[in-house]
UniProtKB/TrEMBL annotation:
Protein name (Swiss-Prot/TrEMBL): GOLD domain-containing protein
Organism: Cronartium quercuum f. sp. fusiforme G11
Pfam families per UniProt: EMP24_GP25L (PF01105)
GO cellular component: membrane
UniProt feature coiled coil, ranges: 35-76
Length: 110
């Protein structure tokens, strides 16, 4: 048939993406601004430090959000525990009251 005579070709593509300070072409900047080797290295370090500071700020915001979520969850659990104890206590009091009334009606207790 027509389809079986065609051979499938497999292709592999490797994609290398640089982000942040790694993506900047410091050689082009050095030529454009006529920077020395030391100045180029300083620019690279400046870019890396800026990335680290941004990452730390992101981690601080993320930690604050997680802490708020944790505190909110803890607060809800405490409220639920108090509600559970209240319901159990109320149920016990109601059962005692109901059984005393029942046994009094049956003249089993005075």
């Amino acid at each position: 048939s027509i389809y079986s005579s065609k051979k499938k070709k497999e292709r592999s593509i490797d994609l290398d993406v640089d982000i942040g300070a790694d993506a900047v072409d410091y050689n082009a900047i050095a030529k454009a601004e006529s920077l020395s080797g030391l100045e180029v290295k300083m620019r690279k370090l400046e870019g890396i430090i800026k990335e680290i500071v941004e990452e730390l700020d992101h981690l601080k915001r993320r930690e604050a959000k997680m802490r708020d979520t944790n505190e909110s969850t803890n607060n809800r659990i405490n409220h639920f525990a108090f509600l559970t104890v209240s319901v159990l206590f109320s149920s016990g009091v109601w059962q005692i009251w109901y059984l005393r009334r029942f046994f009094r009606c049956k003249n089993l207790i005075e």
